[in-house]
Amino acid sequence: MRVVMVGTGYVGLVSGVCFSDFGHDVVCVDKDEKKIEMLDAGGIPIFEPGLDVLVSKNVKSKRLSFTSDLSEAMKNADAVFIGVGTPSRRGDGYADLSYVYAATEEIAQNIAASDAPFTVVVTKSTVPVGTGDEVEAIIAKHVDPSRFAVVSNPEFLREGSAITDFKRPDRVVVGTENEKARAVMRAIYRPLFINETPILFTTRRTSELIKYAGNAFLATKITFINEMADLCEAVGANVQEVARGIGLDKRIGSKFLHAGPGYGGSCFPKDTLALTRTANEHNSPVTIVQAVIDANNQRKSNMADKIMRTITAHHGGGDVSGKTIAILGLAFKPNTDDMRDAPSLTIIPRLIEAGAKIRAYDPESMKEAKPLLPDIEYLDNAYTCLEGADAVVIITEWDEFRALNMTRVKALLSAPILVDLRNIYRPETMKAHGFTYSNIGRPV
Ligand SMILES: NC(=O)c1ccc[n+]([C@@H]2O[C@H](COP(=O)([O-])OP(=O)(O)OC[C@H]3O[C@@H](n4cnc5c(N)ncnc54)[C@H](O)[C@@H]3O)[C@@H](O)[C@H]2O)c1
Predict the structure, then answer these.
(1) Is residue 267 annotated as part of the catalytic site, yes or no?
(2) Do the annotations mark residue 182 as ligand-binding?
(3) Is the CB of 125 under 6 A from ligand 1?
(4) 107 C-beta closer than 6 A to ligand 1
(5) Where does NAD(+) bind (predicted)?
């Protein structure tokens, strides 16, 4: 199959390279010429484990190439995937579909100018219900409806494990009622049949909604356990044991029951918000999702209060003004450089507002973080970050923070205070090391 991927961000680049690794001929297109130049020169614009090796392997085998020229890329294409961003629209929280529609317009003009008998246009971006209809209408202005079909094929990969997620997904969802388009999608995903991956064929609207319903459900699960963690703190229970106790129930499942500082990232915040907008528009409000959004927003700022409370309690009063706080981890989760809606972006400004000075270290996201958090000092490793700090806060659970030498940590800090927003250390161990230790939902 000849596949074109429009947009080479986290989803487009990973999907494109994995399709080429399946044996298809793939051209990845991006309007950002710098990105294309970098990819052509063998560089990778994002951090995603294993991506560099897979890209270079498939470029060498000549199944994968990059360009900013869509018309060149679309020659003889069987399917054109739209993998551009759909961020929250400023001000109202609706999904901003301007990138999707701009890409669609270009794709339409290229199909019209070509003699391709049939092209499948696939929305891989996360798009609200009904967007496929609009994409179809845009193309139909230029092209006879017999020459194309619009399919919804939402992506479920997670940053940090994107390649495995793409190659071994729990399921693939394909939304179309067009038989020819189904056959093309079947051929594209055929390599996954070997692993017996369920491929769910459904209508386009249902497929679009599956993506939002999935993300909203996961965000709800996280928010639920976060609220249980607060309750655990209030009543002296242990949230990790509560999570295990309920997670062993197969109807509930143990995934996504890790209490923390609130969900962030490029998907959950914007997708939950967009879902509430779609629901309200159709007079069918999703009140649970709205409650999740409110609780999660509040939680991020509560985390700053928790940090300040821990520091002042250690000193028996006062505030954090003039104190230096070392932050380990800035990205919204480990194994990514993505800073979109990361909890650190709420927590750190609140600490600065309260007069604290911030030193920070993250293994991969500091380049992304610098323009967003300009008023902090960036250090090049965890231990130098701690030097002379009045407290340390773990915001992102990178592996390299899981086994810090606590004797060394204590010696570097000017006060032995550790706030562990990911519960990666044990309260007993930290107590034995003489730390004032604060965590999420476990007795200390
Ligand atoms: N990031 C994730 O983990 C994830 C997971 C599942 C689904 N999604 C969804 O996938 C979509 C893409 O997300 P992302 O994180 O990869 O976005 P991203 O911002 O990393 O990448 C989008 C890319 O599209 C390019 N682009 C925009 N308009 C273009 C055009 N007209 N022609 C060519 N290129 C164009 C941009 O230059 C950019 O490189 C979103 O809808 C998102 O919700 C993301």
Answers:
(1) yes
(2) no
(3) yes
(4) no
(5) 30, 35, 86, 126, 159, 270, 340
Q: How far is the CA of 159 from the centre of ligand 1 (A)?
A: 12
Cβ atoms 154, 208 nearer than 8 A: yes
- State the catalytic residue, choosing from 28, 232, 267, 385: 267
Predicted confidence (pLDDT) per residue in 245-304, tens digit: 999 999 999 999 999 999 999 999 999 999 999 999 999 999 999 999 999 999 999 999
Instruction: Identify which of 15, 37, 84, 272 to mutate to test ligand 1's pocket (most ligand atoms within 8 A of the CB).
Output: 84
For domain 299-438, the CATH architecture is: 3-Layer(aba) Sandwich (3.40)
Q: What is the per-residue pLDDT across 10-37, written as a single tens digit (0 to 9) for each?
A: 999 999 999 999 999 999 999 999 999 9
* pLDDT value at residue 90: 82
pLDDT averaged over the chain? 97
The answer to whether the annotation marks 126 as part of a ligand binding site is yes
pLDDT digits (tens, 9 = 90+) for 89-105: 887 889 999 999 999 99
Q: Domain 2-202 adopts which CATH fold?
A: Rossmann fold (3.40.50)
Is the shortest distance between the CB of 85 and ligand 1 below 6 Å? yes
131-140 helix and 204-235 helix, angle to the nearest 10 degrees: 150
Cβ of 84 closer than 6 Å to ligand 1, yes or no, is yes
Burial of 441 (0-12, 13-18, 19+ CB in 10 A): buried
Residue that the structure tokens 């927590």 belong to: 347
Average pLDDT over residues 414-438: 97
Q: Is 158 annotated as a binding residue?
A: yes
Using CA positions, which residue lies closest to atom 12 of ligand 1?
85
Ligand 1 pocket member 103 (CB < 6 A): yes
Sign of the CA dihedral with 250 first, then 172, 337, and 213 last: negative
Quickly state the pLDDT bin for 193 (edges 50, 70, 90): confident
CA-closest candidate to residue 123, choices 140, 143, 103? 103
Q: Which CATH architecture has domain 212-293?
A: Orthogonal Bundle (1.10)
Residues with Cβ within 8 Å of 30's Cβ and at least 6 positions away in sequence, in order, are 6, 7, 8, 9, 12, 36, 66, 68
* Same CATH fold assignment for domains 2-202 and 212-293: no
